Amino acid sequence: MTHAPVSFTVFPGDCDAFGHLNQAAFLALFERARWQMLAEGPGMDFFEREGVWPAVRRTVIDYHASALPGQALRFQQVVTRLGRTSFTMRQVARRTSDEALVATAESVFVCLDRVGSAVPVPPAVAAFLLPILPPVVAPQRRIAVHGVELALDDRGGGPALLFVHGYPLDGTLWRHQAGAFPGWRTLIPDLRGLGRSDAPDLGYSMATYADDLVGLLDAVGVDDVVLAGLSMGGYIAFEFLRRHRPRVRGLVLVDTRAPADSAEGRKGRETAMADVREGGAPLIADQMLPRLLAPPAPESLRDEVRTMMAAAPVPGILGALAAMRDRPDSTGLLPSLSGLPTLIIVGAEDRLTPPKDAEAMAKAIPGARLAVIPNAGHLSPLEQPEAFNRQLASFLGRLENPPPPAG
Ligand code: MLT
Known about the structure:
The longest helix is centred in the C-terminal third of the chain and has 30 residues, at 263-292. This protein has helices at 23-39, 46-49, 123-129, 206-219, 232-244, 263-292, 299-310, 314-325, 355-364, 380-383, 385-398, and strands at residues 2-9, 53-63, 72-82, 86-95, 101-112, 140-145, 148-155, 160-164, 185-189, 225-230, 248-254, 342-347, 369-373. It is of the alpha/beta class. The protein is 34% helix and 25% strand. The model is unreliable at 133-137 and 402-407 (pLDDT under 50). Strand 12, helix 9 (355-364) and strand 13 form a beta-alpha-beta unit. D-malate (MLT) binds next to loops. D-malate binds next to loops.
């Protein structure tokens, strides 16, 4: 989370003989800012009370502008990664007078006990550092695929429906769909880097996401699926089709679009990457929330979606942004999907991937059905679950070899 910023003035004693803040001085100021954060929060003895000492293992500082004695600096501090025994904090120092970026620091800490052994981050410390954790969705499993552990919500039995969430969300986006289709098995993963799945620093692309999904299907013994993808999940579905077409028996494209990013869109991804490095997931959550839901969205839904996004690990957000920026244009794929039963669903008030994008896909995919969900924005399965599930159930009912009726 982004902690409340702390501010203080540069003293002459902080500077070297030339009146400048040198490298050592910057390190000391960043450390002072961390102490100040504790002093203004849970207390300077917080770690001691919890029986651990956060030892710095690495700090990388980027210098951007000078700061002179008498100038006030404001430090923004965000925990970008919380591991079992370690955490990473990013600090950004700006001159208060003109908001100039002075320096940034990224430090990795490991929690040590009194004899210097690494120990798990105590729960109270974790709650202070990153208080927002995604809700546990039962029945959830963790499955090792391609060197990472992915969370998977796996319910029911029968032919499989695989739901792929968007950015920067997680599988709880589909909570109204989990187990909601009698005679079908619903599989809802958290993509690598998001939700409760592992978030490696590198290795994100549409191809990796698609191959992860196939790895999950192999691990749970599923040959083919009806593949549903929302927004970025749709981009992943296109890649899945390019790579693993025989494993898809039906396609549901939700609040998504086929073209690649425009030049302006790619620039927007770079800006978002800089924002998340500086302000963490909560900043991205605040930026995206107003564009996601059809007004007037209930407060509880707004809170739920904001919490989901604010809990996304920074490496996963960065990876998803890069993967979306670099994704290929899938428009040319659409006519080749002839013969694949396809349903396209869009919220009537989706501003990110508006109904005209859905109409274009419906025209390009031979035989595709289009359903427009009233009073829904970009997250139609969460905003209007009954209408969404009705459309999906009717599509499933028309597939060849439908599962036997429940009961
Ligand atoms: C998503 O909802 O997955 C993203 O907003 C899609 C995008 O940014 O292109």
